[in-house]
Amino acid sequence: MNNREIKRRIASVKETVKITRAMYSISVAKMMRAQAELPKAQRFYEASKSLLNGISATPSTFFKERGQRAAFIVIGGDKGLCGDYNQTVFESAYAALSEREERYLFIVGSVTKEMLSKAGIQADVEFLHSAENPSPEASYSMAADLMNLFQDDLLDEVYLIYTVKEGDHGVVKKEKLLPFAGEKPVLPIEGVSEGTATRAVYEFLAAALYRGLISASLAEHFARVIAMPQATENGEKMISELTSEFNKARQEGITRALADVGSRENGYGESV
């Protein structure tokens, strides 16, 4: 590379390092936010599940096995630079989706959507900004869509694929949400109407989805917090190497210029 190309490369790497440092700071804040929110989301989920477990003897379509048409809610990331997080989600999702001929794909995360699309699996419903900013509103919206499809007899099962932070790495989980298979309730609730059961299922789905979004957010940002310092260090090392190369090339250029001047002066002296 000539000096101009080296300078452009240094400037480009410096911009990348700025980005990795900024992403680290942002991900630390978002990781801490998700870490604080996850216990609350977990309690909401457990309470909703406990209520549904108590009414699972109710003759409702949401509690009955009936077929193999499945909806998969896959929660991945909207951005990269987070180690193997998105790749791991993609591999787990692709394996699960490939097992079914009749399926709906609800996708959260533009990176995961793109990876699945390149593998020949297109999303039916997209929630592309819910990974970046998990919210109860997005969870209820997804839950409403799933409820409608289930009640209209367009699908028979609902699965959630998301990531859980375990120790210093993320583990992709696959959970079956519908039809709900209740454990034997300690205190079964009698006389529950179909409408009440439907509402309880709706709350359970929203709770499960919100917990999944928060858990995935924690795992994604943790992965980015781990990856960004290494990326920053690699960038700074590259800047140092390029700077040394630039200085060496510049010094060689100066030496050649001085040699040329000396050569010309010697030539003039001989002609005189």
Overview of the structural elements:
By secondary structure, the chain is an alpha/beta fold. The protein has a domain at 38-226: ATP synthase, F1 complex, gamma subunit (Pyruvate Kinase, Chain: A, domain 1, 3-Layer(aba) Sandwich), CATH 3.40.1380.10. The protein is 62% helix and 12% strand. It has five helices and five strands, in the order H-E-H-E-H-E-H-E-E-H. The chain has helices at 3-54, 85-98, 110-118, 136-151, 194-271, and strands spanning 70-75, 103-108, 125-126, 157-166, 169-178. A five-stranded mixed beta sheet has the order 3-2-1-4-5, with helices on both faces. Strand 1 (70-75), helix 2 (85-98) and strand 2 form a beta-alpha-beta unit. Helix 1 packs antiparallel against helix 5 (194-271). The longest helix has 78 residues, at 194-271. The chain is elongated, with a radius of gyration of 28 Å. It starts with a helix and ends with a helix.
